[in-house]
Amino acid sequence: MGETERGPLSPTKIKGIADYERTFGGYKRHTLVPGAAAAVTLRYAMDVFFQNGGTTAYILRAVVSSATTGARGPVEASSPGKWSENVRVVFADSSDVANNPGGFRIFVVYQAPGAATASIVERWDRLSVNPADENYAPDVLARSLYVRWSAGTPVAKPAVDAGVAGASPNDQAILGVAGAALINGAGGALDHPLKDDGTNEGTLGTLLALLDEVTDASLLVVPARLGEADSTVEQRSSAAIAYAEGRPKQDLFCIADMPRHATAATPTLATSQTVTSLGNITPKSNFGAAYFPWVEVSDPVGAGRDPTVMMGPNSAVAGLYARIDQRRGVWKAPAGLEAALLGVRRIEFKLLDAHQDELNPLGVNALRVQPAGGNLVWGARTLQPASEWRYIPVRRTAIFLRTSIYNGIQWAVFEPNDEPLWSQLRLTIGGFMEQLFRQGAFAGRTTREAFFVKCDAETTPEIDQIAGIVNVWVGFAPLRPAEFVVVRLSQIVNQKA
């Protein structure tokens, strides 16, 4: 979740960088200052997410609820926001105007964030007002990245702009059309407020509530903005963790950034400041994990010969989670020598064992540089390190089991609530658990030691049967990571041959 150049306001599923760019734009977004641009943290976050093994993500654009969509005549922007006022729409005759006088053409002109001039980005030709035509204007514009035919607007050929009449207007004439800009677009030019700023635009928490409709995600990532103040990062991470913990189905695990502490002169001072920051992040939940330090990645649109940017690590770590899940399963800790962070040029602070000894017991997972593996994640604890849910894979395995079993037994709804149903539930869930046991998901040498499934008259007494409730108890023996390897050495001396 974060600010973007453009894009829909509801959570949108993407399966790669191309999907993101097509829907949400690039590395910059428009501001209130004409010609100026602000960095889009989410675009950098998507780079490292997919580089590290991420495959699918939902993007929630952070924009105020009062955002409006710019329009000109029958055409409006593809999504709300101030960005739309940088779009111009030029109406012209169809290229086959001699044979099709009722057809028309639309040129879309866009001035990208920070660009000095505008350019023609789309050309839609031989548009028709006939719903039976394959070039019916509303249907064709639904494929545009920038504009749509305004809903509810009658479909008729718009008046041709001056200077572009005829079959072959030149590009210079198209770019020179006056009064072609979309107007009345608003929103998205400012950072979304974390707290209620008095304008009734809500908070980060109310924005996150839009994710309630997403039921097939497992991780929540709210990247810290580039250059964001430490105190603001604390607020951002707190809101994200609180949302994950408060989800009714408890089906999300939050990966949070710790503040950067860029002014710290040494790793020791940065570690001390991180400990202080942790006290400002609430709640301390086992549905979340925090990572430190920040990481340096390449900046494709930066200035200079080899530009880079420093960003929070949570997006790269989320991609790593996905990679480990695919290779080993959610029960494997996303840490260790196989947990290399790809696309990361440098970790900002070089933490040592002494620093980790200070952070690890508090639930802050360190990023370390190790000779055998490079830039690695070297911690796997939740933000409740003193609880039985102290380890990330234990909590995530429980989330996985709860979600999978819940979705897998929907067939039981409206079935007679008696022993035949209970027996079938035990069989179905038991088979699923045994399959996971054979994949190495649980501790224990036998299935009896590894898990149990109970569904009978004891778990579902008569009062629950009357209420239409069937209860299933599932227990499992979790695998816990070996955080420390202890080697004892002794030397035998003065032995006689």
The count of strands amounts to: 20
The percentage of residues in β strands lies in 15-25%
- Distance between the ends: 71 Å
For the record, the CATH class of the largest domain is Alpha Beta
- CATH topology heading of the largest domain: Rossmann fold
- When the domains are counted, the total is 3
Task: Average the pLDDT over all residues and give the rounded result.
Answer: 93
The residue ranges in which pLDDT falls below 50 over 5 or more consecutive positions are: none
Principal-axes geometry comes out as globular
Summarize the amount of helix as a percent range. 25-40%
By CATH, the architecture of the largest domain is named 3-Layer(aba) Sandwich
Q: Widest sheet: strand order? A: 11-12-13-17-18
Radius of gyration: 28 Å
- Our count of helices gives 13
Look at the helices and sheets and give the structural class.
alpha+beta
The major β-sheet equals: 5 strands, mixed
Secondary structure: elements and pairs:
Elements: E1 12-14, H1 17-24, E2 28-30, E3 37-39, H2 41-51, E4 57-59, E5 71-72, E6 75-77, E7 87-93, E8 104-110, E9 119-127, H3 137-141, E10 147-149, H4 171-175, H5 204-208, E11 219-221, H6 230-246, E12 253-257, H7 267-278, E13 288-292, E14 295-298, E15 308-311, H8 314-327, E16 346-347, H9 353-359, E17 364-370, E18 374-377, H10 392-408, H11 419-438, H12 447-450, E19 451-454, H13 462-466, E20 473-476
Parallel strand pairs: 11-12, 12-13, 13-17
Antiparallel strand pairs: 1-4, 2-3, 5-6, 6-10, 7-8, 8-9, 14-15, 14-16, 17-18, 19-20
Helix pairs in contact: 2-8
